[in-house]
Amino acid sequence: MALLPVKKHERAGGELSRFHEEMDDLISSFFQPWESPLWRTGRWPVIDIAEKEDHFLVRAEVPGCKAEDIDISVRGNVLTISGEKKEEAETREKGYYHAERVFGTFRRDLNLSTEVDPEKINATCKEGVLEIQVPKSEKAKPVKIKVKGE
User: Fold this and answer.
1) How far, in Å, CA of 41 to CA of 51, rounded?
2) Conformational region of residue 27, where left means phi above 0, alpha means psi within -120 to 50, and beta covers everything else
């Protein structure tokens, strides 16, 4: 027997739940920048985090941002990525002129599961992708204990 996907508004609460979600979206749209759908949701930049044995690997999509426009800081186990996007495009052709500008700031706070070593963080920004390697602190790394026999 195949299960059919459940639409968002068909979940518990039915029409009232759908109405509530639509009102939330409407109200949020008044208080968020409108230049990009991702900015409107408050989830920009899009981020992937992978936890390895001795470090975290964070990748953020930041198209249009330059390395000098991005700030990274760490406090305890919270990694903060912030910056400003400045993008301008202008096209002039015979009988045609198009100008577009996108400006805005962003900030993402990431709660990491353990303490990190802020002195050894390495970050690079290439082709619109920010990659951050965040080493775990020595006391946060697992320690193997040898079990002795009788």
Assistant:
1) 25
2) alpha
User: Which neighbouring-strand residues pair with 87?
Assistant: 102
With the CA atoms of 113, 114, 120 and 121 taken in that order, what torsion angle do they form, in degrees rounded to the nearest 10? Answer: 20
Percent of the chain, pLDDT > 70? 79
> What stretches of the chain show up as alpha helix (H) in DSSP?
14-31, 37-41
91 within 8 A of 85, measured Cβ to Cβ: no
Q: Is 15 exposed, middle or buried (0-12, 13-18, 19+ CB in 10 A)?
A: exposed
Report d(CA 28, CA 50) in Å as an integer.
30
Q: Does domain 45-140 have CATH number 3.40.50.1100?
A: no
Per-residue pLDDT of 101-133, as tens digits, reads 877 888 999 999 888 999 999 999 998 899 999
pLDDT at 35 over 50: no
**pTM of this structure:** 0.61
In angstroms, the CA 39 to CA 48 distance is 17
Residue with tokens 């993402």: 108
Rounded-to-integer distance, Cα 16 and Cα 22, Å: 10
Q: Residue 35 gets which letter from DSSP?
A: S
